[in-house]
Structure formats: structure tokens, C-alpha cells
Amino acid sequence: MTGLYIVLGIVAILVIFFISAYNGLVGLRNQMKNAWAQIDVQLKRRYDLIPNLVETVKGYQIHERETLEAVTKARNVAQQASSSSSVAERSKAETELSSALARLLVVVEAYPDLKANQNFLALQEELTSTENKISFSRQYYNDSVLKYNNQTQMFPSNIVAGMTGFKSGEFFEITVAEEKAAPKVKFN
């Protein structure tokens, strides 16, 4: 009879472990999905700001049409990537958009009146703030992916993950080599 109690106790412990590990994995997966959704929120904010910024710049100069078109094109590509692409494809599109925005802000330096325009300054500040929030959201997402991947790959929860179909998460990574390089600062 005591042997039966021991077997039932072991089975109960295994069931409790399985439920606990499964619930932990679900929680981490949902945290990772939430972190990805937070990136979406900030990217949507950026997408909404870009047309206003471009229109403000357009009013001050006509010569830099190529740069404005590049920003608009990169925004559209990034928006299209946001709905159906993998993390890697989306990361590439977002990196290209960030690069186009950086070129636009360099162009602005040639127009002192524009740099002093209150509408432009407010939009530029909003865009800078949004870029910072996007960076923090990406960092939080990658931290969430790390926790989730650790849980799905470490023993003994990897057994539950394998049995229930949990797959590793994908990190949001920079794919353009120029973005990884240290910036060059020149003083004339």
C-alpha cells in the first residue's frame, strides 16, 4: 500500500512540475509577444510622425527631393513589413528607415530657417523621443526573447517545451554593417 502512495506521490509531483513548467513557458511566450507589440506601438507612432516631418521640410526646400523620397519609400517598406514579415525582415526594413531618417536630419542642417521653425523643432523632438522609445522597446523585446529561449532550452523545462511545441524566439537584430559600426565624429 505504501508503494502505491509513493508511486502516486511521484506521479503528482511530475504532473505539478509539468503544469508549472508549461504555465511558465506560456507566460514567457506571452511576455515576448507583448514586447513585440510594444515595438509595434512605437513604430506606428514613428510612421505617423514621418509624413508631418517630410511635409514641413518640403515647405522649406525643393532641392533635396531624393532624400525625401527615400524617407517616404523606406517608411512604406517598413509599414508593409510590419504586417507579415519575420523579425529579421522587419529588422532590416526598420534599419533602412532609421538610416533614411538620419540622412534627412543631415539635410536639414543646410537650412537654418528650417532648424529654427517651431513646427519642425517639435516634430524633430517627437521623432527623437520616439526613436528612443523604439530602442528601449527593442531592448525589452530581446530581453524577453532571451528569457523565453533560456526557458525553452534549459533542462528540465526543455522537455515540456519539446513535448508541447514551444519554439525558440527570434531576436531583433541589426543586419546592416554600417549600423553596427562606431560613428565617426569629425570636428572642422
Report on the structure:
The mean pLDDT is about 80. The protein has seven helices and no strands. With about 190 residues, it is mostly helical. The protein has one domain (about 25-170): LemA-like domain (de novo design (two linked rop proteins), Up-down Bundle), CATH 1.20.1440.20. Helix 1 (about 1-60) packs across helix 6 (about 155-165).
What's the short version?
The chain contains seven helices and no strands. The chain has 188 residues and is mainly alpha-helical. Helix 1 (2-58) packs antiparallel against helix 2, helix 1 packs antiparallel against helix 5 (118-153) and helix 1 packs across helix 6.
Coarse morphology: rod-shaped
What is the H/E string? HHHHHHH
Evaluate the radius of gyration: 24 Å
The major β-sheet equals: none
Give the arrangement of secondary structure elements.
Layout: H1 2-58, H2 65-84, H3 87-108, H4 112-116, H5 118-153, H6 157-164, H7 177-180
What brief labels describe this structure?
188 residues; 81% helix; rod-shaped
